[in-house]
Recover the amino acids of this structure.
């Protein structure tokens, strides 16, 4: 058995990170920004919106805009049709991010991104490691600000 | 208890104070005319009466109520600076008075005094 | 006492009283020198309003408001008693007081200090009282434990009474003690005199002589009178007398000459938040009803269908009742405008007869809260830019006094609010010049129709900071008003005739929360069209569609309507199949258009919900709703579409 604290909180300097798969890659975001994870459901299309906006879903009476994270990261991909929706809060606003598969919550030590992927408006904010896999860390607040009107 | 005041705010506050002390509010009136009518209709044990009300002020209402029932127990609700009016009300038959701003303890003391 | 629970009530009621005060002030001013009875009534009304605010604010612990209203009340009392004449200076001071009082009320409820200017107003009120008449000297109350008065000579026992220190209305309290003593026996002497007692010209204590056969009982009674700290026998030896008859000055029984009395209404106060919660719940219930009706129809069970239909009707009735409970007359908002018109007209040195019509028309509380500002801006604009100065009017052959009318009326499921003046109308040349400056049009605008010119004013970006004068002050341009009204699901129509006047008509849904809508389908998607903006629906026949100047139009009876296709608006390809399409005739206050959809499914109540839009997303949607099957559907914003 590993030390339970280490499992729960990860190594020193780590952030509790929600890990998920989009396409072939593993991404993570700070669990503090995540409100809820729900199964994928079809959304009502928002005319005129960019292709990576799936549309509106009804979450217990609250209308939530859902983004196709895959479509945003890799515009050539076809839109998500399954998987999960990660609901993230940013102030009073909330957005759903459609991802292919939920993986885990782990303590991840963020490292600077270097030159790997500049751009994307600062949404890609670092990398980390989950076992042997490289995880790309997302700043969801910046993403929400960029996408919402 | 019958509460007469043209301000809902005041009626609510007086009502709350009295209810919390276990009194039953049988009616409210916003004008002097209403106060007199409701008194005749409801025969309350005690009336709290604002002095300044539209449609017959509190003092005239006290006069009318006392005419109808000399044993009526009316407690005047007054503001600072209304001594002459309160005295007039007492001469008209009011039994006691409380001064705004209301403190629950003072209101209840006055009510007890009037109910004897 | 926990004041927080009363703050809301205090706010609502204080606003009403300030509004009443403003009304009475206006009437008082209009009554002018010929005042007489009218003026007296108005002064009394103002006094009552101020007095009530004073009592409430003191109770809430808002001392600044209590002080202000107290000073105001003193001043008004002098006016009421005729000690002070109504003068323009006094009117100005009273109007200013009403404004400060209003602001102070709002600030106090927010937990903030009284607005700047309160202190100077207090000074002004005091100065006014002082310069216009003498002050009554109030003797400093003597304090301490020594008895300050001598027991007067007379029959009976000498009794000293001390009141609790700082007792409110000490004079009345003392009077009550004397009255109590009179019921216990015969009072033969009082010191100081009863008049001085009433006038509060005494310290904490006073003395009297009482003839009674039960001295101890009398002392006990007096001690139990309100606010009596102590009642003791004075040293002088008592002389016993027989008990005299109890004095009772009560009047004989007279059968009450009851008047007809005002209409008695049975009202219950409900917290606004509770009403909002009820509204939300009924909204959810309406959605669930939709789902239930669908399921019942699919189940094809007669008993079930009937029961569901009945439940459905009950839900509808419930909804109507709840909606009704939220309706408030527009007068609640309109009532503050006469005052605004007076002030603005005075500043501009214009003469205006202001009329309000339809104050009893009702709107949902949520909507009413939102329309106050747009209407205020329209009125300010009308006074500033519409109504001319008396000299200009006379030169143009008009009466010197302009007319300004604010009216409200019901039209189907909408409420129409109109602001109309008989001023100079919209200046075509200036509008075109401005629009060119702003880059809204190119060329000299000669080809623009009057209608196009009016449209320009309402275009976003037309008004600018430099157009804001002192009077429009916090005022804004018509484009901003239009945007505001549209965001409420309403529309604005502007009509103007040069030299004759301008009218601005707002068409508003009854409520923000629920809209009766028509559901339209295109390519498997559902969109909601608010019925406020639907004038009729017709089936599309090829012969009614025509092309005029390369644009598609629909000929409907004598009307030629521009054609919009919902498929194009939402970015779907044109329908391939030859199925009959449906036409919805959309209307705003001033424009009509024909919208072609694949199909119309049903008409139902929808609950309007807001969502966070995305950048680059269409602005054609004013919200969304949740359909019976739980799926979101977008609501078409007809105003921005047309």
């Amino acid at each position: 058995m590993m030390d339970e604290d280490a499992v729960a909180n990860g190594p020193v300097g780590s952030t509790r990170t929600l890990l998920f798969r989009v396409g072939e890659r593993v991404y993570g975001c700070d669990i503090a920004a995540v409100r809820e994870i729900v199964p994928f459901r079809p959304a009502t299309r928002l005319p005129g919106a960019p292709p990576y906006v799936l549309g509106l879903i009804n979450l217990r009476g609250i209308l939530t805009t859902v983004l196709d994270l895959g479509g945003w990261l890799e515009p050539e991909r076809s839109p998500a049709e399954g998987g999960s929706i990660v609901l993230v809060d940013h102030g009073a606003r909330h957005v759903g991010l459609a991802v292919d598969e939920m993986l885990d919550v782990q303590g991840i030590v963020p490292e600077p991104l270097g030159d790997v992927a500049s751009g994307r408006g600062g949404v890609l904010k670092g990398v980390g490691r989950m076992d042997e896999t490289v995880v790309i860390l997302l700043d969801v607040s910046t993403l929400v600000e960029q996408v919402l009107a | 208890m019958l509460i007469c005041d043209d301000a809902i705010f005041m009626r609510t506050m007086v009502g709350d104070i009295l209810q919390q002390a276990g009194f039953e509010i049988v009616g409210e009136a916003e004008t002097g005319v209403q106060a007199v009518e409701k008194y005749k209709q409801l025969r309350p044990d005690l009336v709290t009466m604002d002095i300044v009300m539209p449609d017959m002020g509190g003092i005239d209402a006290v006069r009318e109520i006392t005419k109808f029932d000399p044993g009526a127990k009316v407690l005047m609700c007054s503001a600072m600076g209304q001594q002459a009016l309160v005295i007039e009300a007492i001469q008209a038959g009011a039994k006691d008075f409380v001064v705004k701003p209301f403190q629950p303890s003072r209101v209840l003391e006055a009510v007890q005094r009037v109910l004897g | 006492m926990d004041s927080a629970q009363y703050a809301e009530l205090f706010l609502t009621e204080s606003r009403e009283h300030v509004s009443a005060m403003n009304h009475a002030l206006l009437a008082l001013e209009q009554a002018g020198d010929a005042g007489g009875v009218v003026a007296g009534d108005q002064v009394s009304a103002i006094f009552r309003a101020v007095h009530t605010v004073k009592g409430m604010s003191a109770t809430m612990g808002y001392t600044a408001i209590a002080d202000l209203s107290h000073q105001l009340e003193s001043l008004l009392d002098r006016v009421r008693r005729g000690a002070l004449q109504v003068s323009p200076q006094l009117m100005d001071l009273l109007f200013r007081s009403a404004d400060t009082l209003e602001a102070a009320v709002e600030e106090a409820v927010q937990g903030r200090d009284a607005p700047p200017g309160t202190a100077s107003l207090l000074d002004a009120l005091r100065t006014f009282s002082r310069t216009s008449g003498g002050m009554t000297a109030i003797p400093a109350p003597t304090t301490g434990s020594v008895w300050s008065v001598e027991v007067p000579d007379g029959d009976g026992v000498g009794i000293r009474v001390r009141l609790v220190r700082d007792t409110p209305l000490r004079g009345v309290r003392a009077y009550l003690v004397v009255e109590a003593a009179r019921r216990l026996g015969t009072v033969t002497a009082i010191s100081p005199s009863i008049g001085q007692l009433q006038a509060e010209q005494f310290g904490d204590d006073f003395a009297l002589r009482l003839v009674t056969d039960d001295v101890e009982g009398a002392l006990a009674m007096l001690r139990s009178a309100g606010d009596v700290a102590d009642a003791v026998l004075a040293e002088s030896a008592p002389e016993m007398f027989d008990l005299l008859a109890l004095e009772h000055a009560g009047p004989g029984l007279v059968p009450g000459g009851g008047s007809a009395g005002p209409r008695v209404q049975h009202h219950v106060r409900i917290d606004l938040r509770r009403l909002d919660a009820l509204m939300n719940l009924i909204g959810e219930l309406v959605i669930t009803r939709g789902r239930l009706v669908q399921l019942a129809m699919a189940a094809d069970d007669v008993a079930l269908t009937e029961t569901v239909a009945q439940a459905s009707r009950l839900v509808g009735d419930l909804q109507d009742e709840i909606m009704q409970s939220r309706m408030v007359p527009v007068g609640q908002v309109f009532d503050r405008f006469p005052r605004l018109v007076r002030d603005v007209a005075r500043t501009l040195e214009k003469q205006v007869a202001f009329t309000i019509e339809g104050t009893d028309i009702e709107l949902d509380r949520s909507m009413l809260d939102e329309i106050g500002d747009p209407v205020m801006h329209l009125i300010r604009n009308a006074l500033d830019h519409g109504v001319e100065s008396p000299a200009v009017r006379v030169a143009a052959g008009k009466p010197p006094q302009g007319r300004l009318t604010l009216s409200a009326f019901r039209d189907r499921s909408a409420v129409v609010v109109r602001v109309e003046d008989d001023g100079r109308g919209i200046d075509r040349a200036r509008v075109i010049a401005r629009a060119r400056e702003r880059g809204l049009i190119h060329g000299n605008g000669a080809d623009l129709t009057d209608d196009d010119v009016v449209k320009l004013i309402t275009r976003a970006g037309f008004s600018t900071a430099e157009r804001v004068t002192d009077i429009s002050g916090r005022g804004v341009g018509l484009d901003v008003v239009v945007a505001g009204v549209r965001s409420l699901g309403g529309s604005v129509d502007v009509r103007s005739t040069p030299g004759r006047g301008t009218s601005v008509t707002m068409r508003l849904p009854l409520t923000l929360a629920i809209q009766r809508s028509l559901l339209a389908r295109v390519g498997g998607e559902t969109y909601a069209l608010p019925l406020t903006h639907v004038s009729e629906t017709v089936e599309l026949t090829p012969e009614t569609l025509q092309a005029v100047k390369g644009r598609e139009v629909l000929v409907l009876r004598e009307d030629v309507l521009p054609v919009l296709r919902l498929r194009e608006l939402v970015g779907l390809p044109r329908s391939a199949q030859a199925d009959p399409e449906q036409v919805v005739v959309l209307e705003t206050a001033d424009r009509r258009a024909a919208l072609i959809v694949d199909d119309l499914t049903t008409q139902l109540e929808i609950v309007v919900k807001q969502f966070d839009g995305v950048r680059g997303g269409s602005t054609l949607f004013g919200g969304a709703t949740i359909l019976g099957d739980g799926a979101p559907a977008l609501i078409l914003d007809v105003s921005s579409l047309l």
